[in-house]
Amino acid sequence: MRLHVGCAQWTHQAWPQPSRSKLEWYASWCNAVESNTTFYATPSRSAVANWAEQTPSDFRFVVKLPQLITHERRLSGVEVELRAFLSAIEPLAERNHAVWIQLPASFSPTDLGTLAAFLHYAPRGYRYAVEVRHPAFFDDAVAAGQLERVLGRVQAEWIPFDTGTLFGRRPTSYAERDAWMKKPRVVRRTRALTAFPIVRYIGRDSVAETIEGWTYLVDLVVNWLGEGRSPTIFLHTPDNVEALNLARRFYADVRAVLPDLAPLPEPVELDPPTLF
């Protein structure tokens, strides 16, 4: 059994600020991270190699494709850019859990041919996971089935972004209002297509509400692990201030049901303050 948990980032202004590498410190709290920075630009190989050096071999990155590929070119005519990106992330080796293809909300069922062609010609040897946001994929069983068939041909996963808890009641803070404006309001999805399901879950400012909302997800992960799958769960809140603690709490909730699940590493202590 293998469960990975993590956050949307490995550093946050509200989190403790270690003098050592922030990524190294984060990797003592969680065993996975969403690599959102790659959405804005392809990183250098040296930067990626540095990420690998700062994390243990069982740590996992889910690396997002650059917006040039997914949003600007919409997966068309991007062979050169895709290969350049995959070359850049090679130093991650086994730490590269999946290449994350987050598509814009305007990418609809009529665009599935483009996605199918992209996945067909994408270099093998990588695991691909797709996040769609167009409502039709969640409201129309035919469209959902078509997407599942496209993904199934190349053993790619469908990444759901579970916003049910966030939209459970009206926002009560600026961060929640901002999340209401930006996050997709779609039907909850609980079906895994591969042995490596990935779920992005966002709660609320309230820790208690966030924990209450993931009860179904704990049960789902327990079932997936029992089926021999290796899920990865990313915990978000509107401001992500408590995301680190929540990721560990989620793991603990699963482990309370499955005590044979290996524990997360113990967080390293912050360096003591110096006089100079």
How is this structure best described in words?
With 276 residues, the protein is of the alpha/beta class. The protein folds into 2 domains: 31-159, TIM Barrel (Alpha-Beta Barrel), CATH 3.20.20.410; 160-262, no CATH class. 36% of the residues lie in helices and 14% in strands. It has 11 helices and 9 strands. It has helices at 22-26, 45-53, 67-72, 79-88, 112-121, 136-139, 141-152, 174-182, 207-213, 215-226, 243-257, and strands spanning 4-7, 32-35, 60-64, 96-102, 128-131, 157-158, 161-162, 198-202, 232-236. The protein has a 9-stranded parallel sheet with strand order 6-5-4-3-2-1-9-8-7. Helix 2 links the parallel strand 2 (32-35) and strand 3. Helix 5 (112-121) packs parallel to helix 7 and helix 10 crosses helix 11 (243-257). The chain is globular. 38% of the residues are buried. The mean pLDDT is 95. Pfam families: DUF72. InterPro entries: DUF72 (IPR002763), UPF0759_sf (IPR036520).
